[in-house]
Amino acid sequence: MWDNAPLLRSIANALFGLSLVLVLYGTARYVLHLPVFPLRTVELTAVPQQVPTEMLEQVVHEQVSGNFFTVDLERTRQAFEKLPWVRKVSVRRKFPWSLEVEVEEQVALAHWNGTELVNTHGEVFEGKTGQVLPVFVGQPDTSLQVTQMYDELNAVLQPIRQQIAQINLSPRYAWQVKLGSGLVLELGREEMQQRLKRFVAVYPYSMAALGQKVSHVDLRYRNGFAVRASSSKV
């Protein structure tokens, strides 16, 4: 082997190339960690409405480390997304010295099971609010289903200018809604929209025309519905 000049040249060239790569890698790593590339600012694309700025500043001080090139964007994003009222965050480098943070806040749609909130995407999250919101009651992992049904049924109710104050999905997956007027409607487990449409169609000359205040309507009948007044049955 030692008298094989071409082979020795090939080995020497390979070793030289490897050494050059290692030197370049070490140099680049050293340069990227130099203090000449510090992060000077973390910019928000919009002023948050629900998330306290003090919490955002705390994340910046405690979680954002490294310089412009070495900062861990994924770790930074996850740290921001742990904050209350934060739904989603994107973090980008902004040349030459900044990070740009875009925070998507939660938009509360309803109270969920008395302890949490549900957003406009049907996702449950923890939070407190002073807003007057409808109440959703449902089984675990059904928040999206309840949200979709809420939207569909509210659209059906538009002609009689009523809105849902509470919507319940029972353990047996039967639907019940309570209107803003206090009227409770039993919709059952099938054909909920069709049943509600029939009710809306006759509402002006049935419910609205009754002298007594109606508290409860059972729409689970094929060709009609049962009405219960506040003090007696009809």
Secondary-structure blueprint of this entry?
Elements: H1 5-32, E1 41-44, H2 53-63, H3 73-81, E2 86-94, E3 98-105, E4 108-112, E5 116-119, E6 124-125, E7 135-137, H4 143-157, E8 164-169, E9 175-179, E10 184-188, H5 192-202, E11 214-218, E12 226-229
Helix pairs in contact: 2-3, 4-5
Biggest sheet: strands, sense, closure?
9 strands, mixed
Proportion of residues in extended strands = 25-35%
Tell the overall outline: elongated
Structural class: alpha/beta
How large is the count of helical segments?
A: 5
Query: What's the mean pLDDT score?
Result: 82
Residue share in helix = 25-40%
Strand order of the largest sheet: 6-5-4-7-8-9-10-11-12
What's the end-to-end separation, in Å? 107 Å
Radius of gyration: 31 Å
- N-to-C SSE string, H for helix and E for strand: HEHHEEEEEEHEEEHEE
Q: How many extended strands?
A: 12
Q: In short, what is this structure?
A:
The chain has 234 residues and is of the alpha/beta class.
Describe this structure in words.
The protein is elongated, with a radius of gyration of 31 Å. It contains five helices and twelve strands. The strands form two sheets. It has a nine-stranded mixed beta sheet with strand order 6-5-4-7-8-9-10-11-12, covered by helices on one side. A three-stranded mixed beta sheet has the order 1-3-2, with helices on one face. The chain is an alpha/beta fold. The relative contact order is 0.07. It has helices at residues 5-32, 53-63, 73-81, 143-157, 192-202; strands at residues 41-44, 86-94, 98-105, 108-112, 116-119, 124-125, 135-137, 164-169, 175-179, 184-188, 214-218, 226-229.
